[in-house]
Hints:
This protein is an alpha+beta fold. The chain has 12 helices and 4 strands. It has a 4-stranded antiparallel sheet, sandwiched between helices.
Amino acid sequence: MTLLDLLQYQEKAIAASISIEVRHPAFYHCASLRLTPDQYLHHADFCRAVKLRDNHASCSANKRRSLEVARHGRSFSGCCPHGVWEYARPVLYRGELVAVLYYGNLRPEWKADEEHRNPLRSRPDVPEERRKTIRAAAAFVAEFLKIELDLFSTPGGANAKQRPESYYLENCRNFINCHYLENIALSDLAELLKVNPNYLGTLIRQQTGSSFRTLLARRRIEESKFYLKFHKDLSITKVARLCGFTDSNYFSCVFRKLCGHTPLTYKKEEKPDETPARPGTAGTPSAGFRRRNSGVDSAAVPHSGNVMR
């Protein structure tokens, strides 16, 4: 069983929205630990809708605060800015924070619309039995992760002092595929891989002919083509936000630079005459990462005072 299988199974079994914040290269290097991009975000319908309203601003700020709390290694729970109760389980490995599991207690009837911006203004009454179920599910996943990290850390794995260039390029590709919806930068990847950002940036440019920022933009543009072609009812602004761009004007400029025409032109001219297919999922190489010599760049945290130990 892979981590993706396990999380999807638990979401159905305990009726919760589960996401994970990762802080270890094994999650991008090991096939058993890779997830789809939305699994790294709160992906329930309610959460998607509220994020689109403010370009992820409140959720992103909340996630940063939750990571600071999680670094202490103790689980906590409480309400996010939009009123959803959530349990956070940090995962420590060899004394370092490697992941944080977020289990949201979303109710099926909660809909995000103009008349219902917040499901609840205060912490919802979550029965203790329900909390126990969620805590047990998170504990199981935490142990699963530690076992996988042990396997990854065997001689030649995470402990290797020297790594081939392919290792960094693979992690770069997977990191972008997994997090292109978020506000990521080269420094985030360098911190994850524990290397100097300048060294990593030079390596990526030498092997791909593009910068990390360009590779990220290409991935987002490829995703936008899916929405422009098969979801013509969506506005350009909404498509931009769905693909990780916070500014629709910047999205249009990047699209024109990479594709030679505007998103609106592409939307009008492209016909959905074939089965929709995502341009790339986690672990799937994209053209931007091929070597030139072979033909080829929010989670919830309780408000101050609401943290429950």
